[in-house]
């Protein structure tokens, strides 16, 4: 849990500054403490479990978003980024000499992501997002519910363009629409408008239906069915959720890609397949099924 600088100011920074000077200089430097005390008012800072862990909140003034940057104090004029809910960038690999330097760099980066934020927010409010379960700006993709057996995978570039658009699950109906629509993709329209045009979806109306194996949670969220192999929805070491990967429209089961891949490999005697693609039979309906080692 992070504690605000305001709460620590009187207790720690004022009363115990001498203790820091004489006893704990190996933990944090006095010069850094002075920098923290003199930060501009528009920079919000909190401490974590130790004084080496910090959380800096950066305001996105365009639409009043707040982006949290997690920092690690490595020594005098040595700050590194331990986490941030933004798409991966070289900024996260750099070492910084001050908190203000971190804030300046990330404010410029955040300003450059205006279209990226807008497109993701529009997708989240216009469609039913099946994956990620709790989407953030760090997640540069969305998997949108089209029907009980089919999702649409869309990735968003940092400049707000759509890329790597494909179906998860098999549907001849949706496949034909997608192939025709990609050829007619209008780059003057946003991603939501292009998707609604391609699939003839109702604008400003999230796609939520009461399917046989999908339970509605609220207005635009649904509960993903559990994996038919491990009987879980979330795995501790795998951020993905079960997907409708079986091509048999009558099957109606979901699998984690990792579970299905391991199952198919085990059925073949444990030998890893060539090119990372396992082939075999669906554990439920026994129809032919393939699974890639890497999710896509």
List the keywords.
single chain, 296 residues, alpha+beta, Ubiquitin Conjugating Enzyme, Herpes Virus-1, 3 domains, six-stranded antiparallel sheet, four-stranded antiparallel sheet, 25% strand
Strand content: 25-35%
CATH class call of the largest domain: Alpha Beta
Radius of gyration equals 24 Å
Give the fraction of residues assigned to helices.
Answer: 25-40%
| Major beta-sheet overview | 6 strands, antiparallel
Number of helices: 8
Q: Judging from the principal axes of the Cα atoms, what is the shape? A: globular
**Which architecture of the largest domain does the CATH hierarchy give at level 2?**
Roll
Mean pLDDT over the full residue set = 81
Pairing-aware structural class of the strands and helices?
Answer: alpha+beta
Please give the domain count.
Answer: 3
Helix/strand order, N-terminal first: EHHHEEEEEHHEEEEHHEEHEE
From the 3D structure, determine the CATH topology of the largest domain.
Answer: Ubiquitin Conjugating Enzyme
In spatial order, strands of the major sheet run 1-2-3-4-5-6
Give the total of beta strands: 14
Uncertain runs: 7-25, 208-218
Report how far the terminal alpha carbons are from each other.
35 Å
């Amino acid at each position: 849990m992070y504690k605000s600088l305001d709460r620590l100011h009187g207790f720690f920074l004022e009363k115990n500054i001498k203790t820091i000077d004489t006893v704990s200089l190996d933990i944090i430097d006095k010069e850094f403490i002075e920098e923290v005390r003199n930060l501009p008012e528009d920079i919000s800072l909190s401490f974590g479990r130790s004084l080496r862990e910090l959380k800096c909140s950066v305001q996105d003034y365009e639409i009043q978003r707040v982006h949290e940057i997690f920092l690690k104090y490595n020594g005098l004029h040595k700050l590194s980024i331990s986490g941030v809910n933004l798409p991966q960038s070289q900024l996260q690999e750099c070492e910084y000499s001050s908190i203000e330097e971190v804030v300046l760099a990330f404010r410029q980066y955040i300003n450059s992501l205006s279209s990226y934020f807008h497109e993701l927010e529009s997708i989240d409010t216009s469609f039913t997002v099946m994956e990620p379960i709790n989407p953030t700006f760090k997640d540069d993709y969305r998997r949108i519910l089209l029907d009980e057996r089919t999702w649409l995978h869309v990735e968003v570039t940092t400049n707000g363009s759509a890329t790597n658009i494909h179906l998860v699950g098999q549907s001849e109906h949706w496949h034909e629409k997608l192939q025709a629509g990609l050829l007619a993709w209008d780059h003057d329209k946003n991603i939501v408008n292009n998707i609604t045009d391609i699939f003839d979806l109702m604008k400003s109306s999230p796609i939520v239906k009461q399917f046989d194996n999908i339970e509605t949670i609220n207005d635009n969220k649904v509960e993903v069915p559990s994996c038919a192999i491990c009987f879980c929805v979330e795995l501790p070491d795998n951020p993905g959720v079960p997907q409708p990967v079986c091509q048999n429209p009558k099957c109606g089961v979901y699998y984690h890609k990792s579970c299905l891949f391991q199952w198919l490999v085990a059925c073949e005697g444990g030998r890893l397949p060539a090119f990372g693609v396992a082939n075999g039979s669906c554990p439920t309906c026994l129809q032919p099924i393939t699974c890639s080692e890497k999710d896509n």
